[in-house]
Amino acid sequence: MSGRLTSSNKVAVVGYAHSVVQRHNPRPLGALTVDIVREAIADAGLTPAQVDGIVAATLFPSAGSHTVEDGVHTVTTNWLAERLGASPRYVAGFQGVGQVSGSVALAVNAIVSGAADHVVLYRSLHNPRGSYHASSTDAFGGPAQWTAPTGYFGPLAMIALPYNEYLQRYGATREAMAAVLVEARKNGARIPWSYWYGKPLTAEQYLAAPTLTDPICRYDCDIPVDGVAAFVLTSADRAVDGPNRPVYVSGYAHAVPKTNNRLPLHWPLDDIMTAGLDTARRLWESAGVKPGEVDLPQMYDGFSPFVWFWLESLGLCPVGEAHRFVQDGRIDSDRPDALPILSGGGALGNGRMHGIPQMLECYLQLAGRAGDRQRAKATLAVACQSSPHYGGAVVYSADPF
What we know:
The protein is of the alpha/beta class. The chain has one domain (11-129, 224-397): Peroxisomal Thiolase, Chain A, domain 1 (3-Layer(aba) Sandwich). The protein has helices spanning 29-43, 77-81, 99-113, 154-170, 174-188, 203-208, 236-239, 269-287, 305-313, 322-325, 346-350, 356-366; strands spanning 11-18, 53-57, 90-94, 118-125, 211-213, 216-217, 227-235, 247-254, 296-298, 380-385, 392-397. The strands form two sheets. It has a nine-stranded mixed beta sheet. The longest helix has 19 residues, at 269-287. The chain is globular, with a radius of gyration of 20 Å.
């Protein structure tokens, strides 16, 4: 099935809350989540008793052998439902890789179907003590037996492969990627809750950073953090009565990876782009818009190469040209003639909050709640999550159309 979603612009985001992003929060993740979710509900002009839907994605992103305890290292929707003081009739968790976009789809479908009236969507991230991807495993089975013993283990190796392919195929350089990092950190440094608040990055600092897995350096990776964000969604009809300007969900799409029997960590560039172009086609069809109509595209940047991959997948620049497109101020959010693809700082400018910075920037700008960072023109936005071939994207609108 293809074409515009029947749910397009029938659901709106009407409130939010966000914790301070820290390397390690002194409070348990569950306690922090309860407080932030309650703040988001109050921001929407509601009480917990009025919330009858809860959705989230609870993927614990570390590849290491860490303990994962509900309420401490992750927070499931069932755990929260028991402690929020609400009486939800719809509780669901998204299990895919596009954490935030998948959760948005669950919330929209619940509201449009009548399964819930007011849905809270949240994402809780925990940074375990010790080395983030450290593994105590001394023997591997399944697909990992063919990669891990040779050092091909974890997300760094996974993203280094297509990044190397891109550099070699299109003659791109790490100097070109510096423009992405400088822009992300510049904008994150302006946001009070960001881990990098007050800490911009220069191109020279980026290029001098130690290499982790060639060509990925330290600053190509979002920093692991403790943090929570929450949003409240309701029907477009109810949204007009709330205290904040509604931001409508116009469309969404999720990737359908065509792995060709690849190993789980084997991400060739062609696989990413083939599936990414298909994801983008379905995204624009779902919202009934074209790439050129979007004035606030927020690229996912858990690893910096994703920015280039999404730009090309979405049709915002030609395939193979993203490394040139991001240079010479063309993504500088301070320039009115530029494309502000990281105006919210992204993950590289905030911390490892998955797709939250992208969704939040879309909401704040379209709702007119970005404060000193408010853009003069912000009417149609897109928020991307994860890789174009494993994640998803959501189109948001300031006005239903």
